[in-house]
Amino acid sequence: MNKYLLILLAFSLSIKLSAQDKPGYKNKNAPIEDRIKDLVPRMTLDEKILQLNQFTAGLNTNANNIGEAIKHIPSGIGSLIYFGTDPVYRNEIQKKAIGKSRLGIPILFGFDVIHGFRTVYPISLGAACSWNPSLVSQACANAAKEAKLSGIDWTFSPMIDVARDPRWGSVSEGYGEDPYTYAVFGVACVKGYQGKSLSDQYSIAACLKHYVGYSESEGGRDYHYSDVSMQSLWETYLPPYEACVKAGAATLMSAFNDISGVPATANHYTLTEVLKDRWKHDGFVVSDWDAINQLIPQGVATDCKEAGYKAFMAGVEMDMTDSIYKENLAKLVEEKKIPITKIDDAVSRVLRIKFRLGLFENPYTPVVSENDRYLNAESLKVAAQLASESMVLLKNNNNTLPITQSVKQIALIGPMAADKTNLLGAWSYNGKDADVESISEGVFKEFGKTATINYAKGCEFDGADESGFAMAIESAKKSEIILLCLGEKKAWSGENASRSSISLSTIQEKLVQELKTLGKPIVLILSNGRPLELIRIEPLLDAIIEIWQPGIAGGSALAGILSGRINPSGKLTMTFPLTTGQIPIYYNSRQSARPYGVMGKYQNISSDPLYWFGHGLSYTSYNYGKLKISSTKITMGEKLIAEIEVENTGKMKGAETVLWYISDPACTISRPMKELKYFEKKEIFSAKKVTYRFEIEPMRDLSYTNADGKRFLETGDY
Ligand code: BGC
Q: In angstroms, rounded to a whole number, what is the distance separating the alpha carbons of residues 599 and 576?
């Protein structure tokens, strides 16, 4: 054998050996379940447990989650909340996980990407008022791309907690008061974030939160007890989760609240019996921040060990930040309290999402400049469109709006007029003031050439300083119309931002009253994160536009509505109570026993809210034709087609959302007076008619659930 042959033989032998040595879990062509089955038995107990923990990378500036930045990140950690945006730093951490941990399991980097990343879109409550789920889905896809290029694989979004108490700060993070609306927008978000496949280049994993019943915390006080009956669990709070799980949501977050005595983070029924056994969810559940530890103050665990045991056995696979799993699970396994098969199942779930994301093959973030990452033309376009579609024209007496070109002097007043920070809204961690177009910038651009804009701040958001009133009055005196920009600071809503009264601050209300004395038309522009109590000021106003916290592109969107360049099309997804004392008040409540006359109504105020769910005006008018239905009788397996023709009877093109409700006046378990089952938004040109169509499927649209989640369909009139 000559020398060359020997070298060749040795070479082919080494190839054979390395192919044999390559563990099965590293074979990208093998099915994911085979890769999991190969990897889990190779892991030690400590390695498994570390995969079930999430630490932080970087300092969290969320005042509600104070914690030291972790100095030493173990290379075998399951997940990190990544507070940075630098892909290089992120890749360095990942490199240690791949190179230094024994099995080279990649870390999953998570972050709260709630309504955009650097391109900040309207808060979710506003976005839902667009009734345009495909636009919201697009916004989520764009946000996913910006996040992914900043090192993030997983977002803690969407929040799909049906919220009926506007005192609760996190209503800003949700889609209003109706379960169906949540289901539709939740699914739109999941599809936007996760794309066609989790392994797509710019897909990130979604996390449904806060599972479940979090929005029911008593008195709207965050983190408090929630009394959720099994009936409302199944008919109100679980349906959005079920829809999103079916749409493929990779993960869920267990909530902080105590659900009628069993905290959500220790709730075997919701986390295992419902989610895993019935719905067959095969991803994993992460606890909310420190939520396992909080089982102690919640009164179901005496110490961290018991808290860890309860959360894990209930079905929480990953521990967000409180290290309880890391410190206690091994001991619990040794003591045979936790079976190893349960640990293996939990690890498999975490690994499954990592495999699906393609992290084993592509663990690193491509490094591109911030210019190439953020605020691209497509994202800006979606931000502008969503901002304009989310704004709701609540009142427009005597066609005060749009403002015609004959108006030559416009007063622009209020603490929100030149503000940028607060337009970003809560949970806009990477948003920058410099990216935001303020109301005044939008107004100057829109009207600057045809009118003089007389600006005055008037007052701060709160406090008692009235020294700015005089200048506001001066500006208003010079002007033909007053644009008054009021609202809430962004920190007044979001997590841990409950308010006992949902009215504007006294100083802002006083400013309205002062300006009213001038007798000029006042347009109130409201930017806030929840429905507000407007009872004292609404009668003083000629027009009201709710712009929510519109993100970076609110200024132009609003200005376009003010000038009539844009015809408003938003409708409320959450009722505006007349007073805080009316809470809870929502459209899909059940009928009272004495609905007639004044029985059971408030003695001092109307029992109706100021603006119901679904309210929203336009500059054009629509005429709804007669409802046509394909049949007046229907049996179980059939479909019924309902159609309505809507005519744009005004002069301007518009977009009208038709909301289809069902009611079932007599049923074994009483039904809400009406329930939204479908909606559709369409453009209608002036003097044109468009047909809207709803295909009613009896089991889907007419059935009801009992307190155990079983669905029934009854004969009767609907
Ligand atoms: C919030 C979650 C959030 C988590 C991580 C918690 O305090 O309740 O909504 O995803 O922190 O930042």
A: 22
